[in-house]
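ok trying again, last paste got cut off:
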Amino acid sequence: MPTLTEDLKLALELADIADAVTMPRFKATDLQVETKPDLTPVSESDKAAELAIRAHLATHRPTDQIIGEEFGGLSEDAKGARAWIVDPIDGTKSYVRGVATWSTLIALSDNDELTVAVVSMPAIGRRWWATKGDGAYANGERIHVSKVSALSDAQLGWSGIEDWDAIGKGEQILTLARSVWRTRGIGDAWQYMLVAEGAFEIATDPEATLWDLAAPCLIVQEAGGTFTAISGEKTASGGSGFATNGVLHETARKLIAE
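nice, full thing came through this time. structure:
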């Protein structure tokens, strides 16, 4: 186990708080679900978990900024500030349908650099975390990306073809899928954690936001992998996600990007 910094301890506390909100309502027959303006679902648990996280931060880090999926945050003129990046439920569509692969994502950005990350998947009993420069961990055990060096031996995690068709890259993702050994349509944060653990070599999202990608980005990097946008930009705020074990990054990315 690594030495837990105060920021990591707090991030893990925030994950505990979110788990305590989301798990009791998972598979509830009376779960309240609305449709947001972007036509994606939001459940009562999304809102309640983010509000609980915000309340805890207001007490323990009152001067830190917060960027949350449900209630916004950090303005452009606050760039460089310490900011907690929160997705209370990543995979709400899975959550509301009773699929256990949703997660809570928490990251800390300090002076525009990701320094702490937690991905909590309480429905399957898994939690990953990382601090900048101190490696990545899953349930307390150090994790590393794989050493697979041939695309034909790689496993790919990806979201549904409809998401790729929507951005005009359906054929490109199929080209990549046909170039690897095996594909699995897992999507959301779990696919990135599988890259960090060395089970997958590639994971990608055609469209994603900072709160979707900040925590997975740091964990993949600290596990020895590479995380960029599909464009190749080394950021979690590039509008898409592309993570690999590093060895295969450019070979795989170019099949989609070109």
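cool. The domain at 151-257 is CATH 3.40.190.80 (D-Maltodextrin-Binding Protein; domain 2). Helices lie at 6-25, 44-60, 92-96, 161-166, 170-179, 188-197, 210-222, 249-257.
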